[in-house]
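Lecture 7 notes: from sequence to structure.

We start with a single chain of 229 residues. Read the sequence below before looking at the structure.
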Amino acid sequence: MSEEAGRKPARVVVADDQTVVREGIVMLLGLLPGIEVVGSAGDGHEAVELVAELAPDVVLMDLRMPRCDGVEATRRIRSEHPGTQVVVLTTYADDESLFPALQAGARGYLTKDAGGDEIVRAVESVLSGDAGLSPSIQRRLLERLSEPEPAPESALTAEAPDGLTARECEVLVLIAEGLTNQEIARRLHVSTATVKTHINNLFAKAGIKDRAQAVRYAYANGLVRPPSR
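Now the structure, written as tokens:
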């Protein structure tokens, strides 16, 4: 008997709050070699309970779920049941989804356009101690490692005007440097929507109406120094 034939299938729990999606994933996994679906959950809380009951090898975890989201469920599973690995399977590949999930203990991260072969490889990888990351996620991690680190928040907290937070000051400095919202989002590893929220908040606090006023405000309050001649 070959090693492949003698290997036990990986016992998997699927967690996704959308019934049609969850049932579709379960059906797909049932057709894949080396995987046995032992349970499915409609949210992170149910996922944690199923892990405690069934002790699966791997949980395929969605992120945006009610009651207990995928990040918190991952954190609890890895803390309370370290024998179970977590592979995120989600629609979202933005930094605000990716990095918290990995920090919570997920060993794999796939988007829902992944094929069956890719899911099998990710499950096998995490069970062998490797990371199960899609090529696009691997590229994003490499991009982040190659990006310059943002200025430390401590450098921006001294005498922050008008009650601006450290992050709002940081965003203001980057506006003054001429960065677009998209460029600021990449620099700070957040979504463009988050950048817009910070800008709206700091504009309201400082009484700023546009980016030109924001630049003048940054220079006037010493957050940015004029270039030396």
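The radius of gyration is 22 Å. Keep this in mind for problem set 3.
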